[in-house]
Amino acid sequence: MDQRDDVAVAVDEGEQTPAIAVAGVILAMALVAVGNGLMFGYIPISLGAAGYAPTWAGSILTGLSAGGLAGCLLTGMLVRRVGHARAYMVFSALIVLSNVAIGAGTYPVIWIAARVLYGFAICGLFIVAQSWLNDAVGNDIRGRVMAIFYVAYVVGLGVGSFLLRFVDISGADAALLGIAFNAISILPVGLTRLRQPPAPQAASVALARAWRISPVGVAGMLAVGGVSMLVTGFAPIHATASGFSQQEVATLLFAMPLGTLLFQIPFGWISDRTDRRHVLVAAGLLVVIGGLAASRFDGSALPIMVAIYVVWSGASESIYSLSSAHASDRAHKDDLVALSSSMLFAWSLSGFIVPGLGTVLTAIYGTQAFMHVAVVIAALFTAFVLWRLRISRAVPAGEAGSFSPMSAQLPPSVDP
Question: What pTM was estimated for this model as a whole?
Fold first, then answer.
């Protein structure tokens, strides 16, 4: 073997991605999720304990969504300017600052600003992490790596919710724990050997083009962005207003991510073997049934409510991953970046508008209003998918891709 062959081998070896480096990014985001799961429950519980109306918690959730929308639109520009690693550090620092503001005392107006900052930062973290992982791994294992990434995040949310059972909400313990987990999450990224991806190209939002490629995919993102924020965001608000104890709310929030793990795998397996739209109809109907059951049995014993919310949350999350897979099935390779950026915008926009509507209706009709909004959105989406089944053909089996579990709490990846 001559010198040129030696160089070629060295380059090939240098391009191999160390498994521990990939695991570091996944671990970092799982640690972030623990802090996030803790704070999602802590905010409405502490506001309720301090005597504030539930509309304050709804306004804080809407602020979070507004920050997320800004993050989805501006993250690419920041990454192009400073790179993935530095952008990750910036977003982590912003989350720490957000938790510091919350730990300073129960001041709802300040908390709204803090959660706007958090929404901006967490959306940026997700985009950076997904982009980094997509670049680091090959096509042969990308699906498995991203599945592990999503599952690790969902498990982290559940762990954070469980920790809420042991936190004294009268002090700043929850905020300090959130700060600690986010600070620790920086270490795996700061020590990573993962190579820096190239600067991302600016991807324009073209909703009309995305709609032509996959009406069901775009409609799914518009539906699930709002429904997911309603179910996961207003569940602790309503439970607190209904008189559930801190431990009961923590149990409910701990159980809800299990629905994501329980439903997505079988739904994905079935969707890989049939028209995904049939599975989307099933998921949409389950969301409708879950919302009606949550309203009908509202105030029942905790085990009943946990079972209902596990189904409701799991079915909602499944719409996200199924819609993403369906849209990818119908897109050409050259369309993937534009399609992903447009679906990201649709998801973000819905995640901002619908919680705002839920907050307004909460002020008028009470905290149970979010259930009815979620049911209406899911019913309209299901009817739309049924209509599309009648007028358009399925993607041929040989042209469809494979399903990967995803969480509606994470922005869609903008990478092909």
Answer: 0.83
